Amino acid sequence: MSTIEEKVRARASTGPAWVAAGAVLTLLVLAWKLGPGGAELPAISGPYMPGAYDGAWLSQMVVWLVRRLPVPLPAETMLALFSALALGALLAWLYQRLVFNDWPAIEALAFVIALGANTIVIGTITVDHTAIPVMLACAAIVPGIRRLESVGDVQAEMSFGLVLAFLLLAGPAPALMIPVLALFGALSDRTARSDPRAFVAMFLVAIMPTLLVLTGLLGLLGIDRAIPLFKAVYIDPFRPHLLYIEGVRAFLRVFACTVLPAALLIAAYWLQLDRRRQPWSALAVLILPIYVVAGAYLFSWPVAETVPTAVFLGAFAAWLSVARLTPVFRRSATVLILLCTLASWLVSGLAPPIPWQKLSLYDRHGPATIHR
User: Fold this and answer.
1) What is the pLDDT of residue 22?
2) Predicted confidence band at 43 (pLDDT cuts at 50, 70, 90)?
3) What are the φ and ψ backbone dihedral angles of 106, each rounded to 5 degrees?
4) How far is CA 138 from CA 17, 22, 66, in A?
5) CA separation, residue 186 to residues 143, 166, 190 (Å)
6) Would you give the distance in Å from CA 196 to the centre of its chain?
7) Domain boundaries of the chain, sorted by first residue
8) CA dihedral (106, 107, 109, 113) positive or negative
9) For residue 160, pLDDT beyond 70
10) 315: Cα within 13 Å, side-chain hemisphere
């Protein structure tokens, strides 16, 4: 059977549907049992876009929608269920992409199960929902960079510009990367590197969606409110304010156990002689979590120690969804994610404080009873 026929058969199989059902159902059960014990939702304030104006526009939009759903459930539970539904669907999409990229079904399934079983992923659903927009926004960067590497046309630049607008909505921390990535997008075009007019045109194509979003926020909030708000959200968080040494150690400990081992795989990928090799998208998998760690140290960003690892897991999965790897690299990636998941379960302090006791049938007063 030819390679094309195998891919068509993989697409038409029911495997992705079963993976989707299993991933969504498992995460929904965890969210239902553990979610209400997590952090409370942000306070609601403001007449235009209800929510605490901290720059996490996407999170506040989801919170605003969750609070208005006519469902007799706590808002915290609804937000956990929504997060589980979104990440479960993305895990199913990842499985389909891995099979499409010539992964054997058993290897793709092992990778997806290991990724979904990571306690940091479970923690983003049940405890720290604020990490999800940053995780997804950084993950979306990697396929955009790879498309610029492999195609580099105006359409790829336009798609990349939409990703940059997503960074703005995810929060102030990823927003700093927008001008740098817009410059990278313009320089990825061969003509733009030699023609200043083409460079300006490609830069504007990449930055225009972000400017449109900013214009929409200005119209929504009003100039008098928007200017001091943007200063507080996008300038004040980047004033140098070094993190205390105990906080630095906590970040570096989690980072060293979960992210640094991936550097070996990325370095090996860079050194291989393969015409299909796209090095910059692979390097982004490491740069993105390093960026979050550096920002937390230099500016004392209010992010949990597990957020850089969540960013790495999202970027790593996104890279595998678009990269064509040899069998050795595929198996190495699977082993790497398995070790990362085992570390998140076995090494104390790596996982967020998930209330696992809620899954037990026993409490301190004896066996739990089921009321009919």
Assistant:
1) 64
2) very low
3) -70, -40
4) 26, 26, 24
5) 16, 18, 9
6) 34
7) 3-356
8) positive
9) yes
10) 29
Contact 84, 315 (CB under 8 A): no
The per-residue pLDDT for range 182-196, each reduced to its tens digit, is: 998 888 887 888 888
Cα Rg of the chain, angstroms:
21
Model confidence at 337, in pLDDT bands (50, 70, 90)?
very high
Which amino acid, residue 296? A
Half-sphere exposure of 44 (CA within 13 A, CB side): 14
- Residue 317 banded pLDDT, cuts 50, 70, 90: very high
Q: In the predicted model, is pLDDT for residue 37 greater than 70?
A: no
Q: How confident is the model at residue 316 (pLDDT cuts 50, 70, 90)?
A: very high
197, exposed or middle or buried, with CB in 10 Å at 0-12, 13-18, 19+?
exposed
In the 8-state DSSP scheme, what is residue 32? Answer: H
Residue 79, pLDDT above cutoff 60: yes
Measured CA to CA, the distance from residue 357 to residue 343 in angstroms comes to 20
What span, in angstroms and rounded, lies between the C-alpha atoms of 309 and 329?
Answer: 21
Give pTM, 2 decimals: 0.83
Are 265 and 329 within 8 A, CB to CB? Answer: yes
CA–CA dist 61, 66 (Å, integer)? 9
- Is residue 352 within 8 Å of residue 258, measured between CB atoms? no
Rounded to an integer, the average pLDDT of 166-181 is 87
| Chain-centroid distance, C-alpha 315 | 7
* Token output for 102: 């010539």
Determine the Cα–Cα distance for residues 288 and 283; give it in Å rounded to an integer: 9
Q: What does the alpha-carbon distance between residue 85 and residue 358 come to, in Å, rounded to a whole number? A: 20
**CA distance linking residue 318 with residue 95, whole number of Å:** 11
